[in-house]
Amino acid sequence: AVDAPSILRAESIKKTVAVESSSLRRNHAKCNGFTLVELMIAVVVLSILIGIALPSYQGFIASQRVSATATDLHSALALTRSEAIKRNSQATLSPAAGGWSNGWSITPAGGAAIHNTVLAGGVEITGSGSFTFSATGRLTAAGTLQVKSNSDTTKKRCLTLGIDGRVSSAKGGC
To answer: What percent of the chain has pLDDT over 90?
Structure first.
């Protein structure tokens, strides 16, 4: 047989469980997600931040393109010099058809091109014609090459080639 205090305790437990589950349902309904207003505020804040950062990022990209192209040219000049010394004959770094901005090639004396580079774009290269290194690694004539961005003309780099065959690079125009 079931006594009265046990029944009262069971009913009390049922009421407590019912109250807790209904309050959980109410709290859960309030925390279901973001409201449309909250979402719109987040989108507006994100748009403002992107609008502020984008011009800086474009300048950074232009600067990196110029720097990477100048480094590639510097490496190509060093490779041309190295090939001339290694082969004990002249080697020439010359612009591709259409000029330096289309790329360049390295050609040893009396041979076919051993290295061709095609530029992706975004930069313009101006300067002397071809650069020929003698078997001793010296240039037949000194010269300069200027690399500048198509989108931001303040981003420039100057490569200076001495008669001794060494290349120096500096920020700014030639």
So the answer is: 38
